[in-house]
Fold each of these.
Amino acid sequence: MLIDLARTSTAVTAGSARLAKIAHLAELLGRVEPDEAEIAIAYLSGELPQRNVGVGWKSLQDPPEPRLAATATLREVHDRLDRVKALTGPGSQGARKTLLAELFGSLTRQEQLFLTRLLQGELRQGALEGVMIEAVAKAAGVPAAEVRRALMLRGWLPAVGAAALSGGIEALRAFHLEVGRPVSPMLAQSAVSIEAAFGKLGGPAAVEWKLDGVRIQAHRAGDRVSVFTRTLDDITAQVPELVEAVGALPSSDLVLDGEVLAMRADGRPEPFQVTSGRVSSRTDVQRAREKVPLSVFFFDALRADGADLLDLPGEARHAALARAVPPELMTPRLVTSDVADGEAFFKDAVRSGHEGVVVKSLLTPYAAGRRGAGWIKVKPRHTLDLVVLAVEWGSGRREGLLSNLHLGARDPETGGFVMLGKTFKGLTDELLAWQTERLLAIAEGPTDGWTVTVRPELVVEIAFDGVQRSSRYPGGVALRFARVIRYRSDKTADQADTVEMVRSLML
DNA sequence: TTCCGACAGTGGGGTCGCAAT
DNA sequence: ATTGCGACCCCACTATCGGAA
């Protein structure tokens, strides 16, 4: 029953101890029907078996009156969401609304709350996939490492969890790398400098250009090529150049990891916005391709030479990649133990218009789906001193605190300020409390109950990765990945950086 | 007893496709 | 033609728990 999940979710939300959350989840998994295990695992880790159903915050605004008695089964809810997802074409939004109202009208208040959070992608129970892995292991009586390994190869915990619950450790060991089915890609940790990155790894390392495009995983089985994104979406039809490039390789049994991006004729990369737009284009790929051709650069191989390579050291995987792929399709790379060489390579990458580098251990295996310690990204960091123009009330654990800052640069021509974006990042609890008090003291002007306008007096030092063209902000520019470094109590607003300075960074 | 790896949470800008206006 | 919504591309950072050292 859905109510069982809602109750478990409430119990999981109630405390902060992870072991207690695991115990609650495992208890539920211990009594779920086998044919509903997949749904239960998905829901309680914040996922939908359908991945998405076209329902977001707006569609969930005013739910109908709840029922008093809980009657909905997991299967019923799942089937109704299938029907919601299937609705398309003219009039579908009205029909969708009706179906959703029917569904929510059949639920109790507790069930409504659970389903709303689930559909919004904000379960906020302090437990998602990472905790659910442990719960599955506990409920199935198998080591968590076995669940993780199967998940790495299958990429979808509900399927892995259901198998573990019904078939135990043997069922888990039956999962293997399947060409044509994506593996969660390995992610990188970050460091502030090449020196710090080398320090974390120790010994010689590979330094690779970090290209600012879209992460892809390319599979080839015989003549069949498939391409997947970081979240395992199939984008094969959107990247024909990549399909052709992989199809032309001598080997017909491959799983490759790389980055796709749009390059300019002069050999420099297009801004991320251009690559992103091209990769997202689905309606007229041929035309999009003519306007913005894509290039691909590989940096790892998960399968080649007729063998799975995940467990091999990075260096061995790279050697296999180099045997399978011509050099022009590989990410520029330098192996060194000399920090100065690494720094020079990093500078060269940035000078060539790229994001930075990833410093990689030569030893570690491919940590699929994890932020492995073996890969460390390093990017240059820009900073500006900007003025707080307004601030938004936070939600969740930031409820009651002023959180999201509206940032402005000085405009000497008008004597005013030009908004460049917002940020909520980099704030400690202490700083959140401080800025709430400080900003309320200088609140002035319109407020909509969500955004508090303040007198432009407070200067804050902001780090960011770069500037990008913006149609949202009046200055035509916005900051990318802005975060707070510190408040500049030593500076007044008329000493803040100007919008011209920001624009000059766009070149 | 202290340290640190892994997670979850809190949101940021931009783009596309689709349905409604 | 424009607007709003949902989905997904890129993502940084802090707090916390609990196992490792």
Amino acid sequence: MQNQKVASILNRVADYLEMDGPDFRTKAYRRAAHTIETLSVDIADIKKQGKLEELPGIGKHIHAKIEEILDTGSLEYLENLKKEFPLDLDALMSVEGLGPKKIKLLYQELGIKNLDDLEKEAKRHHIRRLKGMGAKTEAKILQNLEFARKSTGRQLLGEVLPLSSLIKQRISALDLVEQVEIAGSIRRRKETVGDIDVLTVTQHPDEVMDFFNRMDLVEEVIVKGHSKSTVRLFNGMDADIRVFKEDDFGSAMVYFTGSRELNISLRKIAISQGMKLNEYGVFHDEKRLAGKTEVDVFQALGMDYIPPELRENTGEIEAAQEGKLPLLVDYGDIKGDLHIHTNWSDGKSSIMEMALEASQRDYEYLAITDHTCIPVARGMDENRLIKQMGEIDRVNHELEDITLLKGAEVNLDSYGNLDMPRDLLEELDIVIAAVHSDLRQDPEKMNERILRALENDYVDILAHPTGRKLKERKPYQLNIENLFSKARETETILEINSQPKRLDLKDMHVKMAVEYGCQLSVSTDSHHTHDLSFMELGVATARRGWAEKKDIVNTFSLKKLLKLIS
DNA sequence: GCCGTTTTCGGCCCGACTGTTTTCAGTCG
């Protein structure tokens, strides 16, 4: 799967072209990159089928460039641009306030190639001499440079959500504020988040922005205007607050929930129908047609309401226009968790504690699936597993509202065999198979290993199928198409693991799996009672993958579920 | 460089804010 690589090369070309802008070639490259980035199939397969030019935004020229990248692994056009401008573009672009134009000027006039050069020239006060720059720009560069060096980039949704909720809570406690919502990629529930967008309705913009800027979470105020303010928070993340009138709030929510590509498409649709769309409403000439609610805005544009998790411009607009959006699985549809650990292996809470917490969440069932054998996770041997089954029976007897299922997360050896004997597996209600060792195996062997696990009759669920960990570890090099067709053929359930770092399967893979007709589960892989709340992240991922209730097996009643996995 | 339910040529999303200007360019989202 080279989609990511092709997209990043095209994006890099766009970065260089932007130095000479305004140039619509830039937009063309970015659009093509976005198309490829959000493709759920392998771009190499599309090339093989000769269908590259059927993709939106890909014409004759970019088609040829994609072929070159796939054939040779690089793009001569980009290599020449790099020679012409031998810059550390990523680093320079990460300095707030520096864009392609200024970077080009800095290189041509002062020979600045990287952050060290930039710092040197700023300290010598050479930058303020350049056209369009001044003392303030120079000082800002120096200030932002330090931050660019430290910055870790996007943060995990699971880590940012609690912070954004706290901010929302604080703002909504103000009497002056009529409405507050978090928008942006947090509202879309994207797996990583770049900043926090807060939208408010108030008659007192200055007071509200002052309150926001003075929160103890704020390290520094970056921008302050009449309708928006940007601050840098203690954790290095930026947060924006924007103030609207009540009648504008729906269109503001649409616009600031994004994505960027979705906004561009929506505005084009407005134009094609003789209207104009911005964050203040949908307009025909001067007359406002909609703006108060999101539903009104989508309706004025001639389409159904699009749930935030789908707003990535990957086909949802067309579906909304045709009334064919999926009826997404809902956060309240989940009837149980099928992958949790207790203190019988590497979990921190007891079986009873986990059961009570699940019961609090109104679950109908909970599968106890501790590790087997692997030493690192205090995995259970056969005797302990038998003992644990007895304990589960005992707790089940004690609790009325919830049913505990006997399960195990069984380790797959390097060849895809389970590390538990058949007679024991037979006793379990549910068997999860997972890779926990020999992760750097040769890709071909890893593929065989996992396919072999799917063929095992005892395996009900494959846990965290691709093994990725966000910001930590790449996925195994799986042939994902083979995985999905084998899962469907063997009726093995694929897990959407809800751990903030995993979210595995990821959104795009969920979408693909749904198209393949695979069965999915959303589970938390909890190691503590607190972790059960990760379910929200997993369901969000399922929704981002267009999954419906029928695709997710733990929305089923206990009876229906047991029939499926028996 | 791409694209077409007014177009095969002439468009290409839109607004806020800042710093440098003195009417605007660059950046950001």
Amino acid sequence: MLKISSLNVNGIRAAHRHGFTDWVSQNKPDIICLQELRALEHQVPDPIQNMDYHSVYHTAEKKGYSGVGILSREKPIQIQKGIGVDWIDNEGRILMSEFEDLIVFSVYAPSGTTGDERQDLKMEFLDHFLPFAQKYLSGNKPVVFCGDYNICHKPIDIHNPKRNKNTSGFLPEEREWVTQLLETGFEDAYRRLHEGEEDLYSWWSYRAASKERNKGWRIDYHMTCPTLLEAAEEAVIEREWDLSDHAPVTISYSI
Amino acid sequence: MLKISSLNVNGIRAAHRHGFTDWVSQNKPDIICLQELRALEHQVPDPIQNMDYHSVYHTAEKKGYSGVGILSREKPIQIQKGIGVDWIDNEGRILMSEFEDLIVFSVYAPSGTTGDERQDLKMEFLDHFLPFAQKYLSGNKPVVFCGDYNICHKPIDIHNPKRNKNTSGFLPEEREWVTQLLETGFEDAYRRLHEGEEDLYSWWSYRAASKERNKGWRIDYHMTCPTLLEAAEEAVIEREWDLSDHAPVTISYSI
DNA sequence: CATAGTACG
DNA sequence: CGTATTATG
């Protein structure tokens, strides 16, 4: 059994203050994909660095901004930072760890909520990401792209689909992109294990007590190859932990 | 009996969180001279604005920076913001409230701790301040210049005079300036009521638990005319309140 | 609302 | 150490 968690920490230092190491020691995931570290590698709190995990980070050039990481009990046999597109790689958004019989990515798609310019870059990111990810589907190792895609796919994935139909994160072209990703062969593993179930979200605004009222969005995914979907046995969103504005999305795979 | 308090609040909003209105209602000063408001007038918390005091503020152009105020039970018959020197007035450092038989100033001298440039401006401020204040000594109303002068006068006023003899706030030329102010006729009323008493400070660094170890500086003064010194009956530094890194300096005058 | 950054003290 | 700012989400 291999347990993989994905979590946008909204600042690894803040998540540490909120009990990140407690969560790790109580849940013992084999692999943890982190997004939005908002720290340089040397700023990651020591107690996290001293956990019994191998850690790989791909941080942004800009201090306190973006950045992804992968923690794993096993040491990766290979890692890859970025995808060869300068502005994306400078923002620390895509990181791979390859293991003996599994490839894991931590992905942090840009937010488009701050304006048109960033929304355009978000779409550009998605356009780069799709063919990049596709290549790994035809490889001979199971692959999963875990992360914060900053997109809700379907109305069921957002608490107020009507009000948000023109909001970045639920725009038709963004939702269509997720559909394309699935049509190329990826699987939204969490949804596939919870078909039709409502009120399942992975992010809640800090404002207006959104989390306690469960007014959230499901924007964090395990996008798996078909093989891994078959191996997926249990998928949970760990809403009971308040480590950041996101909840960990954890799936156990029988490999 | 007229009770006048002087307090550097290090942010009126922060002081409010730390119990400013409790302090006011328990002590009921007639006049409160405030320094380092670090807020525009409309940002002063409502509970402070709604106290039974008249308030006058002279804020800095730069947001979140400097600024002085005077709260008084009586309504001032006249007020004066600044002293006619642009850079000083833009920084919100000197404010007057005139009453029937008293003139009160709230003064916030620049800090010189951030470097030579600001230290030079501090000395320039002091050079402007001295003749400005002097004029009021020859007037026919009692006058007091309350505030944070950012200078310790004598070794007795600082916990470690030797180590700080080259530190801004205890430099020979700054201490000499205070001596001159006193020689022109002003009185350091708090000291005059506590001659020779040691370990009396009004400011403690937030660092290194300075306050609980009483490693402080006395840099907040009531600089009074001789008439007011004679009227001064009780002078206290209210160290038991933790409203900011300074303690209120409160003197009761029998006028 | 919250986490970063930086300026200032 | 602590209170502000501003950028970002």
